[in-house]
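Anyone able to model this chain together with zinc ion?
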Amino acid sequence: MYDALTTRYAFSCPDRGQARVALSSFRRIEQLPGATHPAVFEVDFDCGCGDRHPGLVTHDELDWAPLGLAEGVFLNLMTSQLDAVEDELADLAARRIGAGEWPWSFFCYPEERPRPIFPSSFFLLAPAQDREAVGIAVRCPVCGSVSVNLVSAAHVDVPFHNDAQIWIVEHVFQADAERALEEFAAELYSARFDARRLSL
Ligand SMILES: [Zn+2]
Ligand SMILES: [Zn+2]
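re: yes, here you go
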């Protein structure tokens, strides 16, 4: 479940009961085979308790809830205020997308251009060495290749916050998840990053 007010996802934590984490605390996002209506994603996230746990999110929660656009809105009489905020958010999001702004973007290295994406295109995330930036491995929705970008946490967590400049690894990654994971870890800490402008 996603909370638009705090931009946090709620999962269960075996230690503390509930964990509220931002998208940038996700470490792996993988669509489960089979389930398509709705599509379900398995994630690993770094929890406030210090451990890493698995969790499940639907496609709606992952890509649409941060924009206030989730289908099957969670109805709770105690949250009429939140519902109003979500309506407003949805309105605003629709207008900004209509005006050519995009909630999330990344730089596709093989294509040498920025591309709009949704969180479901992120498949690996890791804190960078200085802990302030986040390394993201993204599968390009257009060309299918994998690129690694270094971005701010806000770039990941806050819809429509796109860093003006991001850092990329000039490396074409393996498309299969297992190999990409190894290469991701190796490249992320190699500090061989190059700057790119992200204006779409
Ligand atoms: Zn925990
Ligand atoms: Zn691409």
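The first helix runs from residue 59 to 64.
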